[in-house]
Amino acid sequence: MASRPLRDELQLAASLLKEAGHREPAAAVETVLAPGGWMQLRDAGSASTLTINVPSGAKETLKAKAAEFEVSLSSVAEDGYRAFLAGEWLPPRKMAASGGGGKRSVLNLRVSDELRKQVQELIPQASAKAGYKMYESTIALFWLAEEFGVDLGLAAGALRLYMRKAFHEHMDAELARRGTSLLEELEAGVREAEAGSWAASKPSWSAYGPWSKATMSQVTVRFDEDLLGRLEDLAAQFSAELGSPMAPDQVAVAVLRHRLGEPV
Fold it and tell me: Which residues fall within 8 angstroms of residue 109, CB to CB, at 6 or more apart?
């Protein structure tokens, strides 16, 4: 009998550990399996599981974004801890939960014990200075939301598009060359997808080289209800076809990449 791939074996191990109640070891296996998770094996310090209660939709969107950019949610969360400790960033006072009340899920991250200790020690002082209570879990969640463009506080009808900076620059130049707008190209691409002449592939930016914050760019776009609803319908369709979650903002970026091409 042929042996199963190592990834399948590790995924099975994580599932069995969860069923047996060993959630921290299960989270450790899942962290290593995540895109870019292997990099955490190089760290000499210890790490422990940070459990965050999040709306199910937000959890799936964050996981999809991490897979798209081939990074680990845990490693990006640690970047947020460092920014908080350096005084470069604070979690917002209030951020609406994505998707309202709805179903909630547990998101497990593996975070350096040393970073966690430093953040926990700083939180009382930072909270007093800012005038509102902060929590370790919200520091991690809100940083992830900002970094991956999962804006939990945007007004209705708005999406934050998260893309590589090189594509953003190419997009602006190509729109100027064509004399069209971002919304016009989105509308045309959505019509093509609805007609079945184009379909999205699993989002990936691997051709643009390793991920880093400096290589990323965000664009906030406001849509009318009709176009936003059509993007949501396509997101559901592509998620089913691809077998992995795809959010409306990812569909919008995929449409733009299809319409405008990639930079040479």
Answer: 27, 31, 49, 50, 52, 73, 74, 77, 140
197/210 Cα distance (integer angstroms): 31
Is residue 217 classed as helix, strand or coil in its secondary structure? strand
Structure tokens at 217: 């760019």
Question: Mean pLDDT over all residues of the chain?
Answer: 82
Report the pLDDT averaged over residues 77-106: 74
Residue partners of 58: CB distance under 8 A and separation at least 6: 97, 98, 99, 145, 150, 152
Contact 85, 122 (CB under 8 A): yes
Supply 151's token pair: 């804006």
SS3 of the chain: helix, strand, coil, percent, to 5: 55, 10, 30
Nearest to 139 by CA among 96, 78, 97, 86: 78
pLDDT of 97: 36
